[in-house]
Amino acid sequence: MGRGVVIGGERVGPSVKETILKRKRLSDRQAAERAAQRLLHTGRRRGKKGAEEFVKKAEKFVLEYRNKERFEAKAKRGLRSKKKLPVAATGEDGQGAGPGDKILLVVRVRGNESIPEGVARALRRWRLNAVCDSVFVERSASSLRTLRMVEPFVTYGYPTMKTVNELVYKRGFARVREGDQWKSTPLSDNRMIEDQLGAMGVICTEDLIEELVSVGPHHKQVVSFLQPFKLRRPTENFSKLDKLKPYKDGTGVYGNREDHINTLVATMI
């Protein structure tokens, strides 16, 4: 066994010798191709229509495997990357038009097709369980490492105060316990916020937003109290082909958008 990968002075899990990994990848690829050939052979025995159907299944099987392998490679490269995210733009007063670079807004843009297990676990940990789910994430070394790993499946950037307010007021739901069950309840009543977070000094929506964007001492409790924001799918530049491309100069979908995340989310609220 290897000694693991060191990122930013921290060791990220044990690694396996490269020869063992190569042997496993080759074995998996050969198994996928053999399964595809079996499907193709079975289809030929079922006549022309059956053959066409099974050819499509075989091609899809191999394509999904290769996509999964490609995304796993991207995730590993992301973990090893030491590239830093640009700091959010600030205004003339130095205070910026929003929360600055303290928090990030992360939106899931791809589903579960060809997703590596490690990436799926990271997305579940952030509660990004469906396409167009969105959450606020504190900008930290740990969150940046996770972003690099899940980047092909999300887009993210720095939200302005306008975006934060619109998300909370228009799409905000709270996770409230009623009896033995947790229920998703609209943020329409300050009394509910006071009942759940009043002990922390958060008694209304304005307090909740302030704690959220300033990354105050109870930031984690506020994030846990809020449900992921369920957004609409964009009507443009969100096709399957677009989702395979990183965001750059207004094209592509996944990856870091910096301040341009606000333009995207405005079309999804």
Structural write-up:
The protein is α+β, with helices and mostly antiparallel strands. Helices cover 47% and strands 15% of the residues. The chain has 10 helices and 9 strands. The strands form 3 sheets. It has a 5-stranded mixed β-sheet. Mean pLDDT is 79; it is low at 87-97.
> How many beta strands in the DSSP annotation?
9
Helix tally equals 10
Ends distance: 48 Å
> What is the topology, as strand order, of the major beta sheet?
8-4-3-5-9
Low-confidence stretches: 87-97
* Beta-strand residue percentage: 5-15%
Short description:
This protein has 269 residues and is of the alpha+beta class. 47% of the residues lie in helices and 15% in strands.
List keywords for this structure.
269 residues; alpha+beta; five-stranded mixed sheet; two-stranded antiparallel ribbon; 10 helices; 47% helix; elongated
Which SSEs are present, and which pair or pack?
Blueprint: E1 5-7, E2 10-12, H1 18-45, H2 47-80, E3 103-108, H3 117-125, E4 133-138, H4 141-150, E5 154-157, H5 161-171, E6 173-178, E7 181-186, H6 190-197, H7 205-214, H8 219-225, E8 229-230, H9 240-243, E9 255-258, H10 261-266
Parallel strand pairs: 5-9
Antiparallel strand pairs: 1-2, 3-4, 3-5, 4-8, 6-7
